[in-house]
Structures are given as C-alpha cells and as structure tokens.
UniProtKB/TrEMBL annotation, chain A:
UniProt subcellular location: Cytoplasm, Cytoskeleton
Species lineage: Eukaryota, Fungi, Dikarya, Ascomycota, Pezizomycotina
UniProt entry keywords in alphabetical sequence: Cytoplasm, Cytoskeleton
Top-level taxonomic group: Eukaryota
GO terms assigned for molecular function: dynein complex binding
Listed SUPFAM superfamilies: Trimeric LpxA-like enzymes
Function: Part of the dynactin complex that activates the molecular motor dynein for ultra-processive transport along microtubules.
Keyword match GTP-binding: no
Name of the protein this chain belongs to: Dynactin subunit 6
TrEMBL record, chain B:
Cellular location(s): Cytoplasm, Cytoskeleton
Main location: cytoplasm
Native source species: Triangularia verruculosa
Protein name (record): Dynactin subunit 5
Transmembrane region(s): none
Organism ancestry: Eukaryota, Fungi, Dikarya, Ascomycota, Pezizomycotina
CDD domains the UniProt entry points to: LbH_Dynactin_5
Domain of life: Eukaryota
One Gene Ontology term, aspect cellular component: dynactin complex
Keyword check for Transmembrane: no
Similarity field: Belongs to the dynactin subunits 5/6 family. Dynactin subunit 5 subfamily.
Keywords noted in UniProt: Cytoplasm, Cytoskeleton
SUPFAM superfamilies named among the record's database cross-references: Trimeric LpxA-like enzymes (SSF51161)
C-alpha cells in the first residue's frame, strides 16, 4: 500500500444534502453519510464515526449530547411502514449506538444513556427508556416500549439492570469521547 | 503489443496480500497484514483506533514503534462486510484502545463484527458473528454462525462455540484440524483465479 495514503475509503454516492445544526464541539468523521431533506441536529461533544449513515428523509434526526455513533450504523432508515413523521429519530444524551445497528424512522426515541448493541435493529416508533442495554443482534419491533434500566438479551428476554452504575457509565462515556475527539479527524464543515 | 490488464477487483501486494478495492481500511499505517491474507469487498478495518496511552513519554519521537491497531497473521480470510475493530476500555482512569491481534489461518465469516483482544491460529468464525470487546479466542476454535460472544469471554482451544450468549457446545474432533487450513481458499480468490480442477 502506498505510504502516503492514510485510508482507503471508496466513495459512496450520497443523496440530497440535509440542513444541519451542529454544536461547535462535535466530532464527525469525514466519511460519515448524512442524507435527507430534514434537519439533523447533533448536540455538544457527540462523536460520529466514519461510515455512519444518518438519513433524514423521513423526518428530523436529533442526537443528544455526548453520544457515540459507531460505523456502519443507519439512523432513520425507512422501515416497512414507510410513514413520514416530523421527528424521525431522537437520541438522548450519552447514547451509544454500536456497529451496524439500525434505528428505523418514525418517532423512535432512545432514552438517555442507553447502549444499542452491535447489529441491533430497532423498529419504527419504538420507545427505549433510559440507561437500557440492548445486546448485540436484538430486535425491537415497531412501536415497542422498553422501560428504563432494562437489559434486552438473547431472543427477546429482558431483565432489569440493578447495578446502579448509570452515573459511572456517563463519566466513562465522557472520557471515551475525550479520546475519540483526538483520534478521529473531524470535518463538520463538509456537511454544513 | 501488451495490453494493460483490466483493473481487477483485488490489489495484490508483494507479500501476497489480496485486498479488495472496495474494502474500507481506515488508518492503514496501523494495520499489519501478515501475508497471503485475503480481504474481500466491504470489509471495514479501523486502524485509526490506536492505543492512546504510551508507556514511556514519546513527545519527541514521531513514529512510535508500537502503534499497531490491528495485526493480522498469514493466510487469513476476511469475508464480505465484516468489521474489525480494536476493543477499548477504561484503563488506569483513561479510556484507551488496545491492539487487536489475529493469528494465522483465521477465517472471518461475512457480516461479522470482531472486537476481540486476540484471536489465535486456525480459527473459523461463521457469518454474522459478534465477538465482544476483549474476548480471547484460542487456537483451533470453530465459532458457528450468528454467535454472540460477550465481552471478556475466553474461549479455550479446540472448542466449538455457538449461541447467544456463546457457550462451548462441543470440541473439535481429532481429525478435524485439516479443515482449518486456508491455503486452498487463498488460491481461489483474486483477479485471475486458477481454473477449477476438472
């Protein structure tokens, strides 16, 4: 491989360029994909990894403070219902959306501090409570309500998370974001 | 007159690595490929998530010797749409990523996500597998399709692992070691694969 190139990123065709409202302290990778026609809001100190896809065709996307959105995720994918609402996807503060997760559009709300595991699929209009943990490959059907502090694991089983570590998780996330901000070259100007 | 060969799907390096043009490799200086490794299209390797804590102060050196994010051995095969990602954790009060080390003859199935700390030699990982952060997979392990390996799990050698969460469901039989060799598979991939034997 040529030593001058820093990454091999094949170009991906994008859709319409959406209106965005970024906070000044976010980290958004150059190869994140923002498409759609509605507003995308990303609040303070959130991190968007390369190749994350934010699609606001079906409504606005709001990402809270100190969220981490990993690569290959799709926020705002149009699900089977295909409805267009005003607010497609809302992420609370301190949410982590892990690799290849997909969150469908249609008033889907993810509460504060929740971790959406690798490859998880969240249907349209679902309401996920605060500080939940969705383990990898879990599927939340459309319109489902997951109460606060729930852990959803293999094949839809649920249990309550009684560890009481919500505060520590938030602090840990803040430290993680500190490190990520230095590692991922941010390019918000490309999207505004 | 010689014609330029058509642009193939794979880039072949001198050490025999076959990297697809459509694979996404971020931070390639920190990715070490052992040789004769195949990387199929749509694979994503995050080489930019390097260790952020250095044991000695390295403010003067520009090229620290040990900046590897992902180290892959020989004859590995990364199938389509898989994702290799270094695991990260809070270490001594600060968040840092640790290197992901993969041994030789490792087959990673399509759409798998690997965030392990280390994977041994001759490991076969199925499709859509999720290997959690800091998991350790020893040698000659077969991970079946759609397994979810939770973080920090250690999988002993010669085991067969399946389920969500992953459990050891069996052992690799005595004569089963040959099935893990990937030399034949390496030869079938590339711009000019040899014709299949009649």
């Amino acid at each position: 491989m040529s030593s001058k190139r820093h990454s091999i990123l094949p170009a991906v065709s994008a859709g319409p360029k959406p209106p965005v409202r970024f906070s000044s302290s976010i980290t958004i990778a150059d190869s994140a994909l923002l498409t759609g026609t509605n507003l995308i809001t990303i609040s303070t100190e959130s991190v968007i990894h390369p190749r994350a896809k934010l699609d606001s065709l079906a409504g606005c996307i709001t990402i809270g403070r100190r969220c981490v959105v990993h690569e290959r995720t799709t926020l705002g994918a149009i699900g089977t219902s295909g409805k267009v609402t005003e607010q497609a996807v809302t992420l609370g503060d301190y949410v982590t959306v892990e690799v290849a997760a997909s969150i469908e559009a249609g008033n889907t709300i993810i509460g504060e501090g929740t971790t959406v595991g690798v490859g998880a699929r969240i249907g349209a209009g679902a309401f996920i409570g605060k500080h939940c943990t969705l383990t990898p490959h879990t599927e939340i059907r459309a319109g489902e309500v997951v109460p606060d502090f729930t852990v959803v694991y293999s094949n839809g089983m649920r249990r309550m998370d009684k560890r009481g570590v919500a505060d520590l998780k938030n602090k840990g996330q803040a430290r993680q974001i500190d490190v990520l901000r230095r590692m991922i070259p941010s390019n918000p100007a490309k999207f505004t | 007159m010689s014609r330029r060969p058509p642009r193939g799907e794979y880039i072949e390096t001198d050490t025999g690595n076959k990297v697809a043009r459509k694979a996404t490799l971020v931070g390639t200086q920190n990715i070490m490929l052992g040789g004769k490794t195949v990387i199929q299209p749509e694979v994503m390797i995050r080489g930019d998530l390097i260790r952020s804590i250095q044991s000695s102060s390295s403010s003067s050196s520009s090229a620290t010797p040990n900046n590897t994010a992902v180290a892959i051995g020989r004859y590995c095969f990364l199938s389509r749409a898989s994702c290799l990602r270094p695991p990260g954790r809070l270490y001594k009060g600060a968040f840092t990523y640790m290197p992901l080390r993969i041994g030789d003859h490792v087959f990673v199935g399509p759409s798998s996500v690997i965030q392990a700390a280390s994977i041994g030699n001759h490991v076969h990982i199925g499709a859509r597998v999720v290997v959690g952060e800091f998991a350790i997979i020893k040698d000659y392990v077969r991970v079946l399709d759609e397994t979810v390996i939770p973080p920090n799990m250690v999988i002993p050698s010669f085991s067969i692992v399946a389920g969500q969460p992953a459990r050891v469901i069996g052992e690799v039989p005595e004569g089963g070691h040959e099935a893990f060799e990937l030399r034949e598979l390496y030869k079938t991939v590339g711009n000019n694969p040899p014709p299949a034997a009649a």
